[in-house]
Amino acid sequence: MIHADNRITRAWVEQIMGMPISLHVRADDPSRPDITQAVASTFERLRLTDSVLSTWRPDSDVMRWRRGDLALEDAHHSLREVMALCEQASSETNRLFTTDLIGPDGTRGWDPTGLAKGWAIEAAVERLRSVDGIAFAVNAGGDITCGHGGEAVGCPRPWRIGIENPIDRSVVSHVVSIIDGAVATSGTAARGNHIVDPRSGKPAGCVGSITVGGPSLLWADIWATAAFIDPTVLNERAEWADYRVLFEQRI
Asked: Is 42 helix (H, G, I), strand (E, B) or coil?
């Protein structure tokens, strides 16, 4: 017999990486000590990542390294891991993903912002995946990853995710349902025309947004950015068939 998912949902919110990050957990008793400890560990991992990879913090490892104040071998190991991922992202997207950006301080340099958030969330939720009997969803600025800890319970309820209209943000244009997986959106709605087309060195020449879904928030975010610049890029990569455009609106 398949049992309905009647678990209780509890939410936590913290301001990290310059945005509110909400963490929702479904469990028979979401106040269980192992759950609250896992939630605390998840947020702590995100704070650590912010201290290493944020280009908004002059004391972060990446900014100290850029200024020559910190040797790469002395930086937190996650900086080197993210550097390797940035190289892979650039290669996989036909160089549509770039780290050569002008940062918030006005200086140009190596900037992992295009994948740092997705990488940070995926790394942080590993702690939640070890907790039995829960389902979870983490929302970081509209990019969302969902999953469960241990074995899936009964017939789990999907998380319903609304995708806002990039032209009129008061309107939900599309809804997707996810049990395990992620969605990421790139576009101009929240931060204006900030996505740089590496081929020209100028902002991508359109207004709107594109949402990509797939198994990993890291790669959903990477492909959303690349597809906003060139909507055909995912069509050319059969090996990335698990990632697809869920919604697109541009003018």
From this structure: helix
The domain that holds 46 is classified in CATH as: 3.10.520.10
Instruction: Specify the pLDDT at position 207.
Output: 82
Over range 182-186, report the average pLDDT. Answer: 96
**How many angstroms separate the CA atoms of 23 and 15, rounded?**
11
User: Would 3 be classed as within a structural domain?
Assistant: no
Instruction: Quickly tell me which residue has 């301001």 as its tokens.
Output: 15
Q: For the chain, what percentages of helix, strand and coil (3-state, to nearest 5) are there? A: 35, 30, 35
Considering only CA atoms, which of 7, 230, 20, 3 is closest in space to residue 140?
A: 20
The angle subtended at Cα 56 by Cα 53 and Cα 57, nearest 5°, is 75
Overall average pLDDT of the 198-216 stretch? 88
Q: How many domains does the chain have?
A: 1
CA distance 223 to 208: 16
Confidence of residue 4 (pLDDT cuts 50, 70, 90): low
Quick check: is 2 in a domain? no
Q: What pTM did the predictor assign?
A: 0.91
Residue 172: inside a domain, yes or no? yes
- What letter does residue 169 receive in the DSSP assignment? T
Asked if residue 1 belongs to a domain, the reply is no
- Asked if residues 146 and 182 have their Cβ atoms less than 8 Å apart, the reply is yes
Separation of alpha carbons 58 and 50, rounded Å = 11
Residue 162's domain comprises: 8-250
Residue 177: both structure tokens together: 């349902």
CA 133/CA 129 separation, integer angstroms: 10
How does residue 191 score in pLDDT terms, banded at 50, 70 and 90?
A: low
